[in-house]
Amino acid sequence: MKKNTLVIMALIILPFVKLSAQCAQTANIYSFTFGGHTYEVVKELKNWTDAKACAVERGGYLVAIDSATEKDYIMGQLMMSTAANIASNYHPVTDGGGASYIWTGGSDAITEGTWYWQGSPLMSPFYIGQGTAGTGGGAAVGGAYINWGCSSACEPDNYFYLHDQDALGLAMGSWPYGVAGQWNDIDMNNTLYYIIEKAGTSGFNEINKSGKIELYPNPSNNNITFNINANEVLNLTIFDQLGKIVLNDTEVSNNETINIEYQEKGIYYYVLTNDNGLYQSGKFIKQ
Length: 287
Description:
This protein is mainly beta. The chain folds into 2 domains: 4-199, Mannose-Binding Protein A, Chain A, CATH 3.10.100.10; 214-286, Immunoglobulin-like. It has helices spanning 48-57, 68-79, 149-152, and strands at 29-34, 37-46, 61-62, 101-111, 114-117, 127-128, 139-140, 167-171, 183-186, 192-199, 214-216, 223-227, 234-239, 245-252, 256-259, 266-274, 277-286. Strand 4 and strand 5 (114-117) form a beta hairpin. The longest helix is centred in the N-terminal third of the chain and has 12 residues, at 68-79. It is globular, with a radius of gyration of 20 Å.
């Protein structure tokens, strides 16, 4: 199960519409469920950026692995002949010590050395720094689960100096610094299979504890307004599709207008909280 400490984030990364999902062929997808989540193993070679985009198109995000139990279950599904049945050497990676990998959502592309599960509900740093094979000094953030190669000590090392190693690959076999199931930072331009994760067995749901709040207009060009219908001041945070905060902890009350004129076009997610925690989450489109 996903950690409760980030429950607010876990409720906001929501697909806005169900698309045709032509980014991956059904015949190349193996699905399974674990801990109330649905996983899709896509056996098509894509670079990390394209894999992440396909995950969004299919209503999810590249997998965020936050426990040894989850990792072990995923590895079983990847390798069993009765499941995804991926060979340990299906597509060796030169800058990954010759091992083959599966794309996850881990990346430090936003800030070198700061690792996020990008696009997932766990969009907060889980590791900062490098392993001992790099400059050293790296450490998990807030007790987050990590499984870097060399017993979580050597990787990540940003070794491939000609191109930054900005994406987290889940190893299918051994390399000089690790074994199958451990993590390695590799060049995101590699083309690999990937895993899409979806919260719930049928996608995501918006959360509305109050049943009283409306956001309008949606889609919007310049402004959004919250019709709260309650004598209450709430705290608003807005995120883009990568989980980047574009508006942080701003107080809003009934019929208060928020300017989004200068935001890029696309889908955004919001969380409204009060002193008791999550009040409502949802999404809107900036045209």
